[in-house]
Amino acid sequence: MRTILAAGLAGMLIAAPAVAQQQKQSVGDGAQAPLRDLRINEKKIPDVLLLAASAPYSSQGTRNCAQIRASIADLNAVLGTDADAPAAKGGNGGAIAAAGSRAIVGALIPGFGLVRMITGADKQEKRVTAALYGGTIRRAYLKGLGQSKGCRPPAAPTATARAAVPSLPVDKDEKDDKKD
To answer: What are the start and end residues of every segment in region (Disordered) (predicted)?
Structure first.
C-alpha cells in the first residue's frame, strides 16, 4: 500500500512541475504540509486579509474609485485574481496536483490529524481560512460598491462578468446516466 502511495507521489512530483509553476498552489505545498503541521514552516497571515476579515463591509477607504481600486489591488496581490479576471491559461491542473500530493502525504504519515490538532495547525488553518474568506468578501463588496459609484474595472466587475448568466455546472457522469 505504501509503495503504491509513494509511487503515486513520485509520479505526481515528476508530472506536475510545468503546470504547477503556473499556479500559486503547487505540489511543493503538499510536500511542505508536514512542516506546516508541526508549525515549523508557518507563514504569517497578511495584514490586508486580517483587516478585511475584521470589517469586510467597512466604508473606510471607499470614498472614490481610486481608493477602491487600490484596496482591490492590495487584496488581489494576496488572494490572486478575482473571478471576473480573464481565465489563466493552463486550467487548474496545478491545484489538482497539489491537492493530490497533500492527500498522499497525509496518508503516509500515521496520526497526521492528531499531530495537526496537538501542534495547533488546525487552529492556524481555521484562522487562515477565515482571513481568506473575509478578504474575498471584502473584495466582492468593494467591487459592488465600485459598480454603484460608476467606477471602471478593476474597481468594479467587468462588463463580461456583469452580463454572465448564472448556470449550474454539468457533471459529465450525470449527463451520461440520464441518457441510459
So the answer is: 146-180
59 within some domain: yes
User: Is 57 among the domain residues?
Assistant: yes
The number of C-alpha atoms within 13 Å of 113 and in the hemisphere containing its C-beta is 2
136 contacts: CB under 8 Å, gap ≥ 6: 79
**How confident is the model over 5-38, as pLDDT tens digits?**
444 434 443 344 433 334 444 444 554 554 454 4
Joined grid coordinates for residue 156:
468594479
In a domain, 130, yes or no: yes
Domain-embedded: residue 138: yes
Contact assessment for residue 49 and residue 135, using Cβ atoms and an 8 Å cutoff: yes
Residue with grid cell 514552516, as numbered in its chain: 41
Q: Coil, strand, or helix at residue 58? A: coil
**How far apart are the C-alpha atoms of 128 and 143, rounded to whole Å?**
23
The domain in which residue 104 lies consists of: 2-158
Span 142-154, pLDDT tens digits = 999 999 999 999 9
